[in-house]
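Milestone M4 deliverable, item 7.
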Amino acid sequence: MKQRYQVLGLLLFLALGSFQAFAQRTITGTISDTGGLPMPGVNVIVKGTSSGTTSDANGRYSIDVPADATTLVFSFIGYSTYEVEIGSRTTIDRTMQEDVQQLSEVVVTALGVERSTRALQSSVTTVSGDNFTQARENSLGNALAGRVAGVNVSKVSSGPAGSSRVVIRGAKSLGGTLNQPLYVVDGVPMTNNNFGQSGVWGGADQGDGMNSINPDDIETMTVLKGASSAALYGSRAANGVILITTKKGTNRKGIGIEFNSNLVFESVNNLTDFQKSYGSGGMVGSTLQNRVATKATSAADIDNAWNSGWYTQGWGPKFDGSSVVQWDGKTRKYEYSGDNWDRYYQTGSAWTNSIALTGGNEKQNFRFSVADLRSDGVIPNSGYDRLNLALSANSKFGEKLTLVTSVLYSSEKAKNRPNVSDSPGNGIQSIYTYPGDVNVNDLRGDPNKLGAVPSLADQAASGISIHDGKAPGEEYQLSSNLWGQNPWWSAYQFQNSDTRDRIIATGALRYDITDFLYISGKIGQDWSTSRYTRLTPQGTGYQRGGSMSEGERRVREVNLEYMIGFDKAFGKFNVNAFFGGNRMRNSSETIAANGNGFNVPFFAAINNAQQRNFGYGFSEYGINSIFASAEVSYNNYLFLTATWRRDWFSVLNPSINNIDYPSIGAAFAFTDALSGLPSWLSFGKVRASWAQVGNANSVGAYATNPTFSLGNPHLSRPLATYSSAGGNNGTLPNPGLIPYTSTEIEFGLDVRLFQNRVGLDIAYYSQKTTDDILAAGISRASGFGFTSVNVGEITNKGIEFLLTGTPVKGDLTWNVSLNFAKNNNKVESLIEGQDRLFVEEPRTRTAAVYQMVGQPFGMILGLRQMTSPDGQLVYDADGAPLTDNTYQILGNGVADFTGGLNNELLFKQFSLSFLIDFKSGGDIYSGTNVRMTQSGYTQRTLQGREGEAPLVVTGVTDSDGDGNYEPFTKTLTPGEAQNYWSQLGDRAQENFMYDASFIKLRQLTFGYSFPKSMLSKTPIQTLSLSFVGRNLAILFKNVDNIDPEAGYSSSNAQGLDYFGMPATRSYGFNLRATF
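Output delivered:
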């Protein structure tokens, strides 16, 4: 953006009219953007005259105005125009707001090439970096939610600095995790891999590459949604491309200083509404019919209560203030003990401080920045810190040679990332599942080792007993379920930490041979080193000996690019073309060490492990490419563009190792070409494009040829084995594999009305993925179980809509934008003879995500309650639901309708903005609600208990098992009701499917910019203070007890919930100053 100020400021002329022969006065002021940064080159004109000036490099201006002048007009390309009454003032400051109706004259597109917006043939959206620096997200992917039509952002419920799932125009691949876009930072493709996330058996999300980027360094983020706009990236463009352009230095006098401090607090948004009337205990009786709710009333009851899980269930009697003997042998009052969420979760905080130095002249400029983020999570003893350094320098040698360099460094440290889903270390699950009479603070145990069995002296002093006979220092648990983690033990004794150091660097050289011919070269690299430590501490219930693993991963990618370009006008025609090539090399190296049991008690180190093993892995691959682009325009209103790229892949069989990726498109700015159009039509353009792109990552290194590794020794000699065989369950390499291809056609309309006060952009697209890679079963006599084949097909068709407007303009300015998108996708084909493909299942293992022929991407299937031929529900004799043991469609885990509403109001020195994010059309299967219902915690489980509303089931039963159904109506006893609720989650999954639609207040900022008059005697040029908030409220939802976005994975298994991180909201302050 600053480069844009510089270039446009030099091009804009000083429009000074004739001085009139009467008295004048001088008005001065400072012009800044919404972030408080000074804006050079802004036009300031006396309305109704030609008298005017422009702001200088510090955003300051001075203008002489006639005595009878009433209004100043402030304007700048790409920003709203403001008319401000002069009155009696001699100082008028102005904050300029980007006008989304006025498209910038140029935008950065594929390969970093700047193109006129009117020439674009497919959808491109640019988001200003200011949107990411006030109400912040640690992950930039999450910050895109609700901002761009057609971009579906899913926040993973995995804690601070977790991953985000960003999908543009629907999923293109049916398997794996290949549906996220390519990120390019200052022309350097960035690895955005997530090297660890949760699945059916749990785990911890290790975050993705986007977490490395400092929001304060971002100038713009440009989303190339259409295949045509991204086609020059060829085999890496199938899922769209997001271009991140960082800030650069400016031509200014002296050294400029930018300072930003952001302090926010984060708290858990407790969405649960569990019953608080019944506590620990269980149903006791010889039959279901005579069972009664029972609690432990004496020490003799502890053994039964312990083994029956009474202290992790809510099936006891109603709270009455009587006595209950709990897991530690102590007698306490049988009453609701309070909110364990408040006791366990803490108020998190994140404090970011950044400072940038900028300077330069017409020949050289630079920007150097430092940013420091320190955060503590809402889970005790967790946090995330990040240090960012950035340096950019632009140099011009003479009139023809230009050098642009940029280096971004980040150092990340994550402390105790939370385990989620069914991970044994998931203390979050315990907070959910403790009954109301259990106080989680009673499980803190040893004050010097939280979550551990107290010392013998402390046990005697507090009068507790250890039922399972564990020694002091081991995990302090309250039931025989060894996988039921003490949350304090999980938070303070488990270790789940990692670090990542990253350097993204680029150097670009351009030489202008003539005024229309140039050559350029660029080298870019993305280097990262990640290290992790995982510790299951000695004394843990399910693994008394403990275990430990440590590892390191190094990923290196280097891109070399060259280009020769031509840009020349021939009368009314203009030709802009270039030809070039790219050489990419990517390598990955991993080393891991694992140990089980420790020789020296409670000394956690791999060298101290009783059993140890080590692993090493290395892979590399490359792509060589050539590309070309040609744009022919007529009279600057008719544009025809064609691009082509050919990629040669090192991972493919040499006979089929190159693929072409073409595109063609046209744009017609009809308002410039046609006369007689209505005056209210300020601008109008239609566009159309066709393109083919691919996904190189769909074929991994060594996927097409067998590899070998050392096997078990025989007679002291190691045997070579197929490393991919996997005991007849591995995948046989297929030498004929190629990356899948996505073909897209797009049509669009862009109009702006009433002098750009209203803008409308509509896009329609239709795309088809072919040759998607799927695993096909083969005869195990081959020594393998599967092979990969190019057979999958999926289509996406959709519409994107962006409406922008400025209903009010002046001292009070109101800018509003509404975007939404509707995507319809369908799985067209899978492996021959198969109609479904398994993707993932939650821990309940009674539902799963599948891809199904003829259905949308990501269908959720599960066990439904059995029905009779006439559609009535079938029950057994005790009133429990029966299932037919076949998976049926329950819903779809992917929203097909997404959007956002962004409002901004500016009044003098004040600004207010808020973003509303919404989704519709998706479903979520809540394994959390399944388990909480089985344990007697959800509100629905009150029905059928003694003294509560009766539970009456109506349907049919088959008492003889001969298929002859009889009418059945029964009022269940408390024992039968408990059995009903416990069986419901295993036999009738439709009862735990929810509409995942939502409307959220995603972001809110309220700011004040201090007037220049208050700062005139200080070195501060601009100063602003804002209240900021993220995820402050859920305005609408249809799901009980959880966040509608409560997925625990960024993979293709969307719409599954199982004890992920609870929803959080953040609020705080942002201070920004320039000097």
